[in-house]
Design brief:
Layout: H1 9-35, H2 41-62, H3 65-110
Helix pairs in contact: 1-2, 1-3, 2-3
């Protein structure tokens, strides 16, 4: 969808509205993940996967330099927040990979 961005304001406006809507949905999921009382890890992981999936469109959009340039001019705060969310997702995904590796090594020793 972001590949069609050109100098036409309508194209950017559509992408901007989509990013704004996704940001609101992502904020809701982040609040659930950070403040929710989950009975099972699997529920947390399911919500985490949903968040990561929601962010994929944002990530694709932010790889388009024209989108980022226009977003920085139109709404720099939104651009910064979206980038920060992406970095946080990357950080936590890396932690989860490391933890899964450690857990798998520890469980092998226990068995």
């Amino acid at each position: 969808m972001t590949d069609g961005i050109n100098d036409d304001r309508g194209d950017f406006h559509a992408v901007y509205e989509t990013l704004l809507s996704l940001k609101n949905e992502i904020d809701f999921i982040i609040n659930q993940l950070s403040e929710g009382q989950f009975e099972r890890v699997s529920t947390f992981v399911s919500n985490w996967a949903f968040l990561v999936n929601k962010y994929k469109y944002v990530e694709d959009s932010l790889t388009n330099t024209l989108v980022v340039e226009k977003l920085l001019v139109h709404d720099a705060k939104l651009c910064a927040e979206l980038i920060a969310i992406g970095r946080t997702i990357t950080l936590i995904n890396n932690f989860l990979r490391c933890a899964a590796k450690d857990f798998s090594l520890d469980s092998d020793r226990i068995l």
